[in-house]
Automatic annotation (TrEMBL):
Signal peptide: 1-19
Entry superkingdom: Bacteria
InterPro entries listed in its UniProt record: RraA/RraA-like, RraA/RraA-like_sf
SUPFAM superfamilies: RraA-like
Annotated TM spans: none
Positions of substrate binding: G152, D153, N154, L155, R174
The protein, known as: Putative 4-hydroxy-4-methyl-2-oxoglutarate aldolase
Length: 306
């Protein structure tokens, strides 16, 4: 059986050498994201649950990072961002774009192919055309700031009209005051500059990309907060959220019982006794605002080792 990393490499090499497509086919994207077993968009990307995306906003970066580390995914975080609205949280499904320094012959291949596919406008607008509601436009523009501004306020308005979220750029933007005026739009970028995009080219849409320390695939889920961004493989979203919500309930119970003096810190911080577990279950019965449904909670606790 071909290993996943070999599959990704083969798809990327085939794409880059042949330049037969700007975006991988739905079947190729399914191969890239083979561990996702649920519903998909027409382009092949995982169609993760809107309900769990909304609940993801309450998950801390540390909880998400720790969960993924325990699953063996140690390269899913990138920090040190300039954020348009730093006190906001952004979640969504990833649409990727790869940019590279301009090489005229390759750039011509991409633009010629785009014409045959009916794409219009500058190539930096093409990823925007494929966005759907709830998507986040994530682009690797190799940290270029001066002459590396992928969007200004015009394209920012187009992005928000289609996605109702924002962008993550390993590069820069321009027209920052105009972008700030787009109500609801947000962006995690590496800088601002008044220049316009030059000597850059689009190399692919919905291909695997690198964002700093992280490897990002199309259909991943973004959790973007003030402290940075975690890129979550789609297959982990539901369990990650439920795990975080359960930990929050455990912590709330433990903190309350510590304040009441019922248990010592040593009792709460170690493996719980059957007595504490029973107390916790009784405590759950009187909670009015659980972060998940009781059915979800009961199902989760069946497989939980506490």
């Amino acid at each position: 059986m071909m290993r996943p990393i070999c599959i990704i490499a083969l798809i990327c090499v085939t794409f880059n050498l042949s330049a037969q497509q700007i975006t991988p086919t739905p079947e190729q994207i399914k191969t890239l994201t083979a561990e996702w077993k649920g519903e998909r968009f027409a382009d092949g990307r995982p169609k993760t649950s809107d309900r769990f995306l909304a609940r993801l906003k309450n998950v801390s970066l540390e909880e998400a990072w720790g969960y993924l580390r325990n699953k063996g995914y140690q390269n899913q975080f990138e920090g040190d961002w300039t954020i348009i609205r730093p006190d906001s949280v952004m979640v969504g499904r990833v649409v990727t774009a790869q940019y590279m320094p301009l090489r005229p012959d390759y750039d011509k291949l991409i633009k010629d192919k785009g014409k045959t596919e009916g794409r219009i406008g500058g190539t930096n607008s093409w990823p925007i055309d494929v966005l759907q509601n709830g998507d986040v436009y994530v682009a690797d523009s190799y940290g270029k700031i001066v002459d590396g501004t992928l969007i200004g306020d015009n394209l920012g308005n187009a992005i928000y009209a289609k996605s109702h979220t924002g962008v993550v750029f390993y590069g820069s933007v321009r027209d920052i005051e105009g972008l700030e005026e787009i109500n609801g739009f947000n962006g995690w970028v590496k800088g601002y500059d008044p220049s316009y995009i030059q000597q850059m080219m689009l190399a692919g849409i919905n291909v695997p990309i690198r964002i700093g320390r992280a490897t990002v695939l199309p259909g991943d889920v973004v959790l973007a907060k003030k402290g940075g961004i975690v890129f979550i493989p789609a297959q982990f979203l539901e369990d990650l959220v439920l795990n975080s919500e359960f930990v929050q309930l455990r912590d709330a119970f433990g903190h309350q019982r510590l304040r009441e003096g019922k248990y010592t810190p040593g009792q709460i911080d170690q493996q719980w006794t059957d007595e504490i577990k029973k107390d916790f279950l009784q405590w759950l019965d009187i909670q009015k605002d659980l972060p998940m449904t009781r059915q979800e909670l009961d199902a989760y606790m069946k497989d939980r080792t506490w």
